[in-house]
Amino acid sequence: MTPPTVLSQGYANDAEDTLVTKLLNQTVYSSVEDNAEEIGNIKDIVVSSGIGISAVVVSVGGFLGVGSKDVAVDFHQLDWATRPDGSRRWVLESTAEDLRAAPAFIWSDSVENTGAPALTSAEQEAQLAPGNPNAAPVDPTLTTDAPERAAITTPIDRTGFTNLDEKGLTADQLSGIPVYGINDEQIGTIGNVVNHSDGTIDAVIVDVGGFLGLGAKPVAVGYDNLAFSTDTSGNRYLFLNTTRDQLEAQTEYNPDTYPGEGDNQRMVITP
């Protein structure tokens, strides 16, 4: 993640930055080799609040745009890879055939905008093309479990950050704060808060996992021992002494049963 911009200082891009306009129409290949398959072209970009680029829409198949199929691919599955000659290209460890077999990407907001019923969360999640973490076919006699693709995250630069006193923060101020875990990698976002009967905050609800806001798991994290920070622009952050895996393994927050089962659902963070 690029450090937050201080308006008075402007922004200076680094070698790894790129413009969205330069992503569009770029060819996606299956590898860096000369004989790599041209899988398709980047047709569009999906941007999510608090995340940035979440997915790219790859147009695969067809001829001159006719008969092609649009498929959404998790942006983290793409690799800006360096070839032996020093040039770079976008690589997706998959094949055009795999993408043609994946669900077509349909951007459907509402009946008013498209004339068709809005997609359900499950239908939108189903549009995401599955990743292929193994470039070559796997012999089923050699392994019984396909390894999950690890989430690719970039540690946040805490230069200029200061501690933030969480006392007095309202639910609206807490909502949307990005949550970082061990190694300063983003692991979720605060989606809501739970109050005690006296109005004080009992826990924050951290949405972890999922894609494009869909399928995220809400986890209650006790408000004690939380370490909030702020940057020079006033943006707020929450740092937890835990990992994404530990959060995802926690019991899911259920607003209906939490009043009686809070001790089981609430994750307690140690300083």
TrEMBL record:
InterPro entries: PRC-brl_dom, PRC_barrel-like_sf. Residues 21-92, 170-246 form the PRC-barrel domain. Residues 122-142, 252-271 are annotated as: Disordered. It holds the Pfam family PRC. Transmembrane segments: none annotated. This is PRC-barrel domain-containing protein. It comes from the Bacteria. It comes from Devosia epidermidihirudinis.
